[in-house]
């Protein structure tokens, strides 16, 4: 397991591997220089859990080029790490999601929101933990946010925009391991951003037939060994908001009673 900061999730995965008798090695990649000889054993599976998504994908691509099976594969990381690529993949599979647009200029962003309508949500193409999201309720707010993003530089000058979905104060984070939906939590908050990293409260949600089939469709669209899928319940049914390839799960084990790290370890063992 390759990491740059040893979080609770990495510790749990390593602990469960040991308890299950699965050989596991923790490797700190913080000071790696890629392109040279790396102290990574051949065979087995490399589970990439670096904090930075860009660094994680870089590590995964270098390891895969040397014939090492990486989880998740870098192509899956790339789809999940870019909200437009995620949206395109979901569209291709016919997966319901909030309406979205990508604009390449401030003027285009204004036009896109005019098409989607207020309120709308502007997101960075790459980002997590609910950071740098902006809900705009009117044109004055939109102009301010677009100008601010434009001045932040090239990484913020591609505008990913979604319709705002009234989700009733909660969303759902569901987990898919080895292509199989295994658990889901409801994340509730009075704030429109419900991430547990931003204070959302977690409780168990049974994975019913409708949700199970939707998550199977997400798996077909995105691929991968482990996915964390964010869902909205709307008047159009379930909508897929985002798909994460390296999702955190420490706040989901207790409410669901599901051994998520154990399921991940068992799946990785089957890949060898």
UniProtKB/TrEMBL annotation:
One of its GO terms (molecular function) is ATP binding. InterPro entries: ATP-grasp, ATP-grasp_RimK-type, ATP_grasp_subdomain_1, LysX/ArgX_preATP_grasp, PreATP-grasp_dom_sf, Rp_bS6_RimK/Lys_biosynth_LsyX. Keywords: ATP-binding, Metal-binding, Nucleotide-binding. Residues 87-269 form the ATP-grasp domain. One of its GO terms (cellular component) is cytoplasm. This is Lysine biosynthesis enzyme LysX. NCBIfam families: rimK_fam (TIGR00768). It comes from Thermanaerovibrio acidaminovorans (strain ATCC 49978 / DSM 6589 / Su883). It comes from the Bacteria. It holds the Pfam family RimK.
């Amino acid at each position: 397991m390759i990491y740059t900061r040893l979080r609770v999730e990495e510790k749990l995965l390593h602990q469960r591997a040991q308890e299950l008798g699965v050989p596991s090695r923790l490797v700190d990649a913080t000071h790696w220089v890629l392109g040279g000889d790396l102290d990574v054993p051949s065979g087995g599976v490399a589970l990439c859990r670096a904090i930075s998504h860009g660094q994680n994908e870089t590590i995964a691509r270098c390891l895969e080029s040397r014939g090492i099976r990486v989880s998740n594969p870098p192509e899956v990381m790339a789809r999940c790490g870019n909200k437009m690529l995620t949206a395109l993949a979901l569209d291709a599979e016919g997966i319901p999601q909030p309406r979205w647009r990508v604009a390449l200029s401030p003027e285009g962003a204004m036009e896109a929101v005019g098409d989607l309508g207020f309120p709308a949500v502007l997101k960075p193409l790459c980002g997590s933990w609910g950071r740098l999201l902006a809900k705009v309720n009117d044109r004055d707010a939109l102009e301010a946010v677009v100008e601010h993003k434009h001045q932040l530089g090239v990484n913020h000058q591609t505008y990913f925009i979604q319709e705002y979905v009234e989700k009733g104060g909660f969303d759902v984070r569901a987990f898919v391991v080895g292509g199989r939906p295994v658990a889901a939590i409801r994340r509730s908050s009075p704030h429109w951003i419900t991430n547990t990293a931003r204070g959302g409260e977690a409780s168990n949600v049974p994975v019913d037939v409708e949700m199970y089939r939707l998550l199977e469709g997400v798996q077909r669209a995105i691929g991968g060994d482990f996915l964390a899928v964010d869902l909205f319940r709307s008047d159009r049914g379930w909508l897929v908001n985002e798909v994460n390839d390296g999702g955190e799960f420490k706040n989901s084990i207790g409410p669901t009673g599901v051994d998520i790290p154990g399921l991940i370890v068992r799946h990785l063992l089957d890949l060898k």
